[in-house]
Write a structure and sequence with these properties.
The complex is a heterodimer of chains A (145) and B (293).
Chain A (H helix, E strand, L loop, with lengths): L4 E7 L2 E15 L2 E6 L5 E5 L2 E7 L2 E7 L2 E6 L2 E6 L2 E3 L5 H22 L3 H20 L10
Parallel strand pairs in A: 1-8
Antiparallel strand pairs in A: 1-2, 2-3, 2-5, 4-7, 5-6, 6-9, 7-8
Helix pairs in contact in A: 1-2
Chain B lengths: L3 H57 L7 H4 L6 E7 L9 H18 L3 E7 L1 H11 L3 E5 L9 H16 L5 E9 L5 E9 L18 E3 L2 H75 L1
Helix pairs in contact in B: 1-6, 3-4, 5-6
The chains are: A alpha+beta (145), B alpha/beta (293).
Keywords (chain A): ATP synthesis, Cell membrane, CF(1), Hydrogen ion transport, Ion transport, Membrane, Transport
Main location (chain A): membrane
Pfam families (chain A): ATP-synt_DE_N
Chain lengths: 145, 293
């Protein structure tokens, strides 16, 4: 059995999960990564995606819309902007999330006159969000841009 | 002498008032429990967030490349005060106390020759501040339709504040809210949100001396997190404020109910005494009438 570490998942409004886990797969800003016990200290921002947590009672999956994670040798704390357990996730929530991001993209295109930097970021956010949706088996609706 | 009919009306009207204050007190008690729960639930995030921010802030320090939100604009000329109060009255001195605290700061800043701008959240504080500092109010956030304060509400306010900061409208920002101590006491609190202040980790704590890797770079993370920190602080303040408002209303309504009790008792006594006097009077009239025969 692999070493266990403390896993915490909190959003601004509530604590979502807190238990021992052996491995956590995170959607890091610069690519997915898996953290296990005694991982080197790391702070990374997250993109929208799915967290896979291997705990004592099997694997849990959580949807996050962004935020950041602090990894220490003793444990990992994920501070999500918004997060749901996979079972709580519904088509309505996904639609709302995608709408919000699409709105942001529209605004950033207007604000930055289609300059590459901010517009690309917003587009990436949107595509990450949609990829996350299809990953958990919901059909991301196509935003009308 | 007040006549019996009038007294009876007064008594029933005070009794009705008492029913209302009693009901409001109970509603406030229920809402208080919910508000406290919400504040409780938000605590782990705020604590961890501040921990990480403190670490980042101390490692980036006061380097000239640090984001403006952390370092400040280098001037202290224009101040933005975000004053958060309740949307409703009937909660004792709650709204006035917060407005008073803010006014004290405004007077001090004005006497130092600074420019002051005010954003109000909740219309009660706006009503108080508009009288004296009407020309300083630049915006108002209406929370009337908000049943339960969510993180989204805080993000909205934070975005408003940050956009103004990016636009160079102010240098320093404070928030004002009522910190919930207990049902009887709510402390009007002032907190600086821009430039950001975070508790730097203690040197001996385990997290304090760990060297973290950052992905993407330290600066990028900091630039991403600082705006979020503003939202988090505003969110925490809104939740505290919500709990404080209900607490203040609960104790205000409790004493109103007790006052109504006293009043009913006094009025009842007066009513009985008057009734007695009327009966005595009638008897005297009958007896003296009989004696005259």
């Amino acid at each position: 059995m692999a070493d266990m570490m403390q896993f915490d998942l909190v959003s601004p409004e509530r604590r979502i999960a807190s238990y021992k886990a052996s491995a956590v797969k995170l959607p890091g800003a610069e690519g997915d990564l898996t953290a296990m016990a005694n991982h080197a200290p790391l702070i990374t921002t997250l993109r929208p995606g799915v967290l896979h947590v291997e705990g004592e009672q099997g694997t849990d999956e959580y949807v996050v819309t962004g935020g950041f994670a602090q990894i220490t040798p003793e444990g990992i704390s994920v501070l999500a902007e918004e997060s749901y357990h996979r079972d709580e996730m519904s088509q309505e929530i996904l639609d709302r999330m995608i709408d919000e991001v699409a709105e942001k993209q529209r605004k950033s295109i207007e604000a930055s006159h289609n300059q590459p930097g901010p517009t690309d970021d917003a587009a990436k956010l949107l595509s990450d969000m949609m990829a996350m949706g299809s990953h958990i088996g919901l059909s991301p609706k196509q935003p009308n841009l | 002498m007040a006549n019996l009919k009038d007294l009876k009306n007064r008594i029933s009207s005070v009794k009705n008032t008492r029913k209302i204050t009693k009901a409001m007190q109970m509603v406030a008690a229920a809402k208080l429990r919910r508000a406290q729960e919400a504040a409780e639930n938000a605590r782990p995030y705020a604590e961890q967030f501040n921990g990480v921010m403190g670490q980042l802030a101390s490692s980036v320090g006061d380097s000239p490349t640090a984001p403006l939100l952390l370092r400040g604009t280098g001037q202290e000329q224009t101040y933005l005060l975000v004053v958060m109060t309740a949307e409703k009255g009937l909660c004792g001195g709650f709204n006035t106390n917060i407005a008073k605290k803010a006014s004290a700061r405004i007077r001090q800043l004005v006497s130092e020759g600074k420019t002051v701008k005010i954003i109000t959240v909740g219309k009660k504080g706006r009503a108080v501040l508009r009288r004296t500092y009407g020309d300083m109010l630049i915006d108002h956030v209406d929370m009337t339709d908000v049943k339960r304060v969510g993180y989204g509400d805080a993000q909205g306010i934070a975005k408003n504040v940050l956009d103004r900061f990016d636009g160079g409208e102010f240098d320093v920002a404070y928030i004002y809210y009522g910190e919930f101590e207990n049902v009887m006491t709510q402390i009007p609190t002032e907190q600086q949100i821009i430039p950001a202040t975070f508790d730097r980790p203690e040197g001996d704590s385990a997290a304090g001396n760990t060297l973290f890797d950052y992905e993407p770079s330290e600066e990028a993370i900091l630039a991403d997190l600082l705006p979020r920190g503003v939202a988090t602080q505003i969110f925490a303040a809104l939740l505290e404020n919500g709990a404080s408002e209900q607490g203040a209303r609960m104790s205000a309504m409790d004493s109103a109910t007790r006052n109504a009790d006293d009043m009913v008792e006094n009025l009842n006594r007066e009513y009985n005494r008057t009734r007695q006097a009327v009966i005595t009077n009638e008897l005297i009239e009958i007896i003296s009438g009989a004696e005259a025969l």
